[in-house]
Amino acid sequence: MAAETVPNIRHAVIPRIGYGIVGGIAGGIMFGVLMQMMGMITMVAALVGGSSVAIGWLVHLVISMGIGGSFGLLFGTVAKGWPRTLVFALLYGAVWWVLGALILMPTILGMTEMVFVINTTAMQSLVGHLIFGLILGIVYQVFSRRNA
C-alpha cells in the first residue's frame, strides 16, 4: 500500500503544484507590471529590506510562485473545468489580497495603522490580485487540460 502511495502522490500532486507555479509566474508578471506602473514594486522590495525595482520584482515573483503552487496543491482536485477553476482562482486572489495587502504587508513594514484600511490604493490592489487570480486560473486550466 505504501509503495503505491508515493507514485500516486508524485503523479497527482507535483504536476498540480507545477501548473500553479507557472500560473503564478504569469499572473505575477501582469500584476507586477501594474504595481510598477503605480510605483508600488519598491514597497515589495522593502519586505526583505531592499529598495530597488529589481529586488521588488524578485520578491514579488517568488511570492507569486508560492501562491500559484499553493493554489495547485490546495485546489487542484476541485478546480476542474473552466468555470470552477476561474471561480476558485479569483477567490484565491481575493483571499491573498486580504492576507497580503491588508494584513501581512503593512504589518511586516511596520505600518500597523494601515492594517485593514480600505482606500484607493487598497482597491487598486484588489483589482491587481483579481487579475493575478484570473491569469493564474487560466494558465492552470490550460496546463492541466493539456496534460490530462
What does this structure look like?
The chain is mainly alpha-helical. 80% of the residues lie in helices and 0% in strands. The chain is built from five helices and no strands. It has helices at 2-37, 41-45, 53-75, 82-108, 120-146. The model has no long low-confidence stretch (mean pLDDT 93).
Features:
148 residues; elongated; 0% strand
Please give a quick description of this structure:
The chain is mainly alpha-helical.
Order of helices and strands: HHHHH
Q: What structural category arises from helix and sheet content? A: mainly alpha
Give the rounded overall mean pLDDT: 93
Q: What percentage of residues falls in helices of 4 or more residues?
A: over 70%
Shape: elongated
The separation of the N and C termini measures: 25 Å
**Total helical segments:** 5
Uncertain spans:
none
Classify the beta-strand content into a percent band.
Answer: under 5%
**Spatial extent as radius of gyration:** 16 Å
Main beta sheet: none
Q: What's the arrangement of secondary structure elements?
A:
Elements: H1 2-37, H2 41-45, H3 53-75, H4 82-108, H5 120-146
Helix pairs in contact: 1-3, 1-5, 4-5
